[in-house]
Give the backbone structure.
Amino acid sequence: MQGLMQDFPLVVHRVLEHAARWHGQTPILSRSVEGPLHRTNYATLGRRARALASASERRLGLGLGTVIATMAWNTWRHLEVWYGVMGLGAIVHTLNPRLFESQLSYIINHAEDQWIFIDLSFVPLFEALQDSLPRVKGFVILTDEAHMPASTRLRNPVCYETLLADGDEAHAWPEFDENTACGLCYTSGTTGNPKGVLYSHRSNVLHGLMCSLGDAMALSSRDTVMPVVPMFHANAWSIAFSAPISGAALVMPGPRLDGASLYEMLELGKVSFAAAVPTVWLMLLRHLEQNTSLSLPHLKRVVIGGSACPEAIMRAFVEHHDTDVIHAWGMTEMSPIGSLAVMSRQAAELPPEKWWSLKLKQGRPPFMIDMKITDDDGNNLPHDGKTFGRLKVRGAAVARSYFKGEGQSAFEGDGWFDTGDVATIDDYGYMHITDRAKDVIKSGGEWISSIMIENAALGCEGVQEAAAIGLPHPKWDERPLLVVVRKPGAEITADAVRQHLVGQMAKWWLPDDIVFVDEIPHTATGKISKLDLRQRFRDYRFPGTGS
Amino acid sequence: MQGLMQDFPLVVHRVLEHAARWHGQTPILSRSVEGPLHRTNYATLGRRARALASASERRLGLGLGTVIATMAWNTWRHLEVWYGVMGLGAIVHTLNPRLFESQLSYIINHAEDQWIFIDLSFVPLFEALQDSLPRVKGFVILTDEAHMPASTRLRNPVCYETLLADGDEAHAWPEFDENTACGLCYTSGTTGNPKGVLYSHRSNVLHGLMCSLGDAMALSSRDTVMPVVPMFHANAWSIAFSAPISGAALVMPGPRLDGASLYEMLELGKVSFAAAVPTVWLMLLRHLEQNTSLSLPHLKRVVIGGSACPEAIMRAFVEHHDTDVIHAWGMTEMSPIGSLAVMSRQAAELPPEKWWSLKLKQGRPPFMIDMKITDDDGNNLPHDGKTFGRLKVRGAAVARSYFKGEGQSAFEGDGWFDTGDVATIDDYGYMHITDRAKDVIKSGGEWISSIMIENAALGCEGVQEAAAIGLPHPKWDERPLLVVVRKPGAEITADAVRQHLVGQMAKWWLPDDIVFVDEIPHTATGKISKLDLRQRFRDYRFPGTGS
């Protein structure tokens, strides 16, 4: 028997309509790409998104299933494009300007983007790139007539404000199924071509609801939220949806993410809640250290994610600025939020330093996410904070496949997505990423975390950088080799590093050998390239294992 | 194009599984119907709900689409029955023990309930009633063997704990569509037979999410929530779902709702958040007044709804106990929450007394509810806080029809549900119920609120009770007649009442006549029966309008 409740499709334009109707006067402050600050509100954003939809439908031919791309910073216009285009049933493919040009061409062609909406700053990039993008019909430049380039080689350049002025602010949104695709974001895979994650209206709305909950971001209409994390990083960690769901005010930092610029926006906007990766927060904290008269009176909470956050950054916020820090973890494939280290009921009863040991982990899953750790055979492992296994997730906003069916191996038949991470889960429910699955060292059937060896080694005086990799061993399958770069002028020896490690880990975790190199290879995004490192040590043999 | 996200049906047993898995040790404290306190947690509740599902499927024949009823107070067992039965795809029909026996028979037969799960206290009621319930197969008594009645005339009496002990705690939930019905609640209509509202899994999960949001109940795992409002009052205002969604601890007050008993549970459970109707809170406040050594150190917030809350109750909580009050409004047809007078961003900037004038209203709709006011022809009316019109709502947890297709007139073709209330909405978005649509007085095309005249009259010394009704008028269609009951011994005159009203309302709102009666008729639930009153004054003519 079916319930007798109203049909209420979870489509993202309902989020905007709610904010426009019930939080209409709530401000949206942006730093524009042209330079000046710009102020608007949800009521106006709603009208302009409808106008953009109407004009894009008529003049650009956008409709159900059309894919367009954006390369834009976080501004009110980027939000208008999202809601206006998604509300047509078309799909917004967000482009990360930090990608290599060859990757950009690949994903734009792979996604079959028909139009690209770009900030002024990216005009030269696409003038150079457009010949490799034969299917792109043209470019909408997110500015007004006064700021349009005097001349451009771009194919079919359209001025955004002129396009929008041609639209109908009373445009009625078309009706379609809530499982309709609305967003596309490619993961920058370390191996192989980037793979697309295709979000649906339903998954984005449910993810926005999930992230608004009390044990997630706990947003309300009294909050002023600054997503420093770009909208091209998987939905700005939900904020493009969760802020209007909650009626929170928005401060959009535009293109300038240096410490001084962020500080200015935090203060001008009286931001109470902000989200960014650790390196961005480090820039802000350095700016505050260099300008000791500055403080953060409005900023109550920050979310830090994207990579594991150093304890020093978290302590600086909490202890020097009375700003709470929420460590979070996610993946593009998870829309992206998977867990947040929010203080749970049980954690609230712990002494402060014990709580800090949990706060530094990647956190707990809110409702609509579930996670588990398993061994290589898929058997569940205990949540004891020690045993580590492959981290698998499922949920309302987790991908079931990549765009065009690529990379199926991560998607298990049993409905769980294999994150490729290795993690522990403690008895308080806090998950801790200990390694990437492909980097974990498998010694005699047991797993050794390469990251934990590296972190221990980095604490040794004279060590600049360290990488632990598993190499073949005749008896134990694999054993750890530690590769170390000395600090300039340091004369540290292998024995000294080994002595430093003893006592910090189980004896059988200790590297079988420690070697020094001048340089460790890195990926384009600055991470250690263990693939290259294993390649370089392909012919290495551990002492005493022959030939 | 469809998104490529996992299939994650919004079914209520996923809520329980989340709480059992990630908030397993979080306590659920109940006052049992047998008397003693009972302590359990979400992990145990999850196991027992699965065991109940398994045993109910095998021994009672419950499955997809079966309707069963419960008549039970708020305890851990009632929660187990809800989740266990709903998780089978069967439907829980909650019975209000305060209904007349004839109404109970009607709705049990109308719903085609197959089994009735009852608290011990209701055994005599059903012994008397069962002969009028030929289709009910038997009764599950929510107790253990030790407390089972020594003998009972009940048809097929089953001991709940014995049934449950026969179940499998590892029972796997069946898969079904999220739009499957899971709950049935009848409205106690003032005219005609009660009508059933059939909730779906999806509507209950979305309603639970909505109510957890920051501008609704703002729940978190640090909260301890006491739903004083019974589970048979439309999902205990969502708390049966929103508390486990948020991982909040639960305190279930069982059958004793007097001030002393509630105070005991608030203190024992360290309740931080509670929900009840005004009369229940009044009993608690009286108990506190009579025992001045008592205080409410843990209680941070209460939700008050079910009927308009007198200002004195709200002030007592806020000013004497430092407990914030959230005035809420809803209907069984809305699952039931429609609006909450939570402080919005704009309201936070108002001076305290201006904020109080908003706080006393019924509040604002969270995301997934929309509302509007219209005139009789369906034209939208302005949100100016003055104009009042028919209040219409739509949303993810709003009914689109009554059970078995009855009472269609409230369900408009355009997707909006006509609440039958008349309301204003102010420019801060706060909705204020001013009357029932059938009681509003229509004078010369303009509307007069009967309730506002009554409230003004009640402030007049010597007036015990007052009712304003619209009666036919040859020139104005209708004009207000004010019917007054004097306080014992009072000698107030019609002129004195009229003088009291002047200045409190527009001149054209003043009643055309004021008459005194010994008694005003009431409905079974204690409200003024305007239907009876209009009937009694059927032959009345206003002074100067002839015959």
Q: What stands out?
A: Chain A touches chain B through 73 residues (CB under 8 Å). Residues 95 and 436 of chain A are 25 Å apart (CA to CA).
